[in-house]
């Protein structure tokens, strides 16, 4: 069921009975078993230390924990084809890959995406802008203006066009960089949404970074139906002081309330949800991955 159709159906009926009907249509095993009725996924950056040492073993452990989808962030010592086979051997699927899409041509990068079997060729920031000398920095990001975000949007449209020609869907992943205020009071993220082609450019909301940036994943999903296909489920210990980088935490140990985000994501047609954790880690990475899975699996 398409996101907009489901949204209209559930909101027009406004009843638990309607939700039950949708759940029945999806099947008893998948209805609301995990957040948004989706397989639990993980961005492999979360286990970046251990996966470099033992890629096959780490992927198998993730499957044993309960994860069923992964999103890549590099291939280590393997080729994309080899890495994709290791993912399959572990019983996992890989619907999205974070790729270096700085162009101007992306032939080999898109070949790697196909070797992995992904649907989404995903990136963040790109290289449409570069900080000038003495540029003001916030959380390690340069201060950007309206023209910078317009230039980034144009680059995203170019990547999206070429991804479509290669049989892939481009998706853009945010940090808190995109929530710098523009002269009219809007966010840079709004420029990216408004000046990119709806069919060519989809978005993956990093919910943790969006909230740290001062914005609401729920409100963005409501305001821009059909633009968001994936989310990163990330938590932070506390809202950082101005100019300070936040410290990551296991899911459920931070300050971000995911219940309304998952409820809206279900209506908005989110297709994939990946746990991701920032440092500094206070527990071994695989132990954190177990905690993150338990949190997501409990959010039925």
From TrEMBL:
Annotated signal sequence range: 1-33
Key words of the record: Isomerase, Signal
GO molecular function (one): isomerase activity
Every Xylose isomerase-like TIM barrel domain range: 60-264
Pfam families: AP_endonuc_2 (PF01261)
Family matches, as SUPFAM superfamilies: Xylose isomerase-like
Protein name, entry field: Xylose isomerase
Organism in which the protein naturally occurs: Edaphobacter dinghuensis
Upper taxonomic lineage: Bacteria, Pseudomonadati, Acidobacteriota, Terriglobia, Terriglobales
């Amino acid at each position: 069921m398409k996101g907009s159709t489901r949204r209209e159906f559930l909101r027009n009926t406004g009843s638990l009975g309607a939700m039950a009907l949708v759940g029945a249509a999806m099947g008893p095993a998948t209805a609301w078993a995990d957040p948004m009725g989706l397989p639990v996924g993980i961005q492999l950056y979360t286990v970046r230390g251990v996966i470099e040492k033992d890629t096959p073993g780490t992927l198998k452990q993730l499957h044993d924990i309960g994860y069923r989808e992964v999103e890549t962030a590099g291939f280590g010592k393997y080729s994309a084809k080899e890495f994709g086979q290791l993912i399959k051997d572990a019983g996992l699927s890989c619907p999205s890959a974070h790729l270096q899409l700085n162009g101007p041509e992306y032939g080999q990068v898109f070949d790697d995406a196909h070797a992995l079997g992904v649907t989404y060729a995903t990136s963040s920031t790109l290289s449409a802008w570069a900080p000038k000398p003495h540029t003001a920095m916030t959380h390690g990001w340069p201060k950007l203006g309206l023209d910078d975000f317009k230039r980034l949007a144009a680059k995203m449209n170019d990547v999206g066009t070429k991804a479509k020609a290669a049989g892939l869907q481009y998706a853009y992943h945010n940090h808190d960089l995109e929530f710098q205020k523009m002269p009219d009071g809007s966010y840079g993220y709004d420029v990216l949404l408004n000046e990119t082609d709806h069919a060519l450019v989809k978005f993956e909301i990093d919910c943790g970074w969006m909230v740290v940036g001062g914005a609401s994943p729920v409100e963005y999903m409501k305001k821009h139906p059909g633009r968001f296909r994936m989310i990163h489920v990330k938590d932070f210990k506390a809202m950082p002081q101005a100019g300070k980088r936040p410290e990551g935490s296991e899911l459920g140990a931070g300050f971000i309330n995911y219940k309304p985000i998952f409820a809206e994501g279900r209506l908005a047609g989110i297709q994939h949800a990946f746990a991701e954790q920032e440092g500094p880690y206070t527990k071994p990475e695989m132990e954190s991955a177990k905690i993150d899975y338990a949190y997501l699996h409990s959010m039925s």
